Amino acid sequence: VVSLAVSAPRHAKVSVLGAAGGIGQPLSLLLKQSTLISELALYDVANTVGVAADLSHIESAAQVKGYVGDSQLEECLQGSKIVIIPAGVPRKPGMTRDDLFNINAGIAMTLAEAASKACPDAMMCIISNPVNSTVPIASEIYKKNGVFDPRKMFGVTTLDVVRANTFISELKGTPVTQTQCPVIGGHAGITILPLLSQVEPSCEFTDEERAALTVRIQNAGTEVVEAKAGGGSATLSMAYAGARFAFALLQAMNGAKNVVECSYVESDVTDDLQFFSSPLLLGPNGIENNLGIGTLIDYEQQKVGRNEARTCR
Hints:
Blueprint: E1 12-17, H1 24-32, E2 37-44, H2 48-55, E3 63-68, H3 73-77, E4 82-85, H4 97-118, E5 123-126, H5 131-144, E6 153-155, H6 158-172, E7 183-185, E8 192-194, H7 207-218, H8 220-228, H9 236-253, E9 259-266, E10 275-283, E11 286-290, H10 298-308
Parallel strand pairs: 1-2, 1-4, 2-3, 4-5, 5-6
Antiparallel strand pairs: 7-8, 9-10, 10-11
């Protein structure tokens, strides 16, 4: 349950880097509707002026401006309280996350470098895949520049939670808007682990259901890539998940209590992995408390052990 503890919300500037892309456009559309955003700064290498003009006609308070190219990146970022990065190429059929890494890592490095200098205190929310790699890369850049704050660096894994909630509701008939399943680990394939033993409202799963549902959640991105048949990856559901995470951060920054979201962050939850996704209690300065993974059943404990045996990539 989220309750606002302030009567006058503080309005924030939010920057979206990669705003003209398949995730960036619907994400920006959703963000434009927030009453907690005063300025929406949209950046990409092309086409953002048109996207910004389009969004600026929507009857909501946030002012929208588009920025194009390296020369305008710093201006876009200055004064930002939240930076969201969906920039990069989407996954296509047959493409592995290592293939994505070879392209998107350089993009993430460039944008993180700019943000670490223009708005080092902003909440950094990284969507660009592979998140298991782009978040550590961005963190190292912030550390190199002496501005790293682990409370403010997030890999957005919310889509794994959204998918888990949806698939559980479909299988068990629980109200989808009330179904909550924590998802821990990473944001790629078998590193994704839905904690079905901790679903609320509580559900019973057979061993077969648990195994099949876990695999479906892990492979849901591929499910969309194949369904689009070369036409892209999960853009609309990712935009929704990114907006959900941004709204949670905005609420927490404005004093809301009990705001909990899963995210891939620098963590000491496990012995062997420096970065790990788990439920986080959010506050005005980012992560207030890492809530850990709770009590796991044997099936989940075995999966966590396999997660720890894998490298960050």
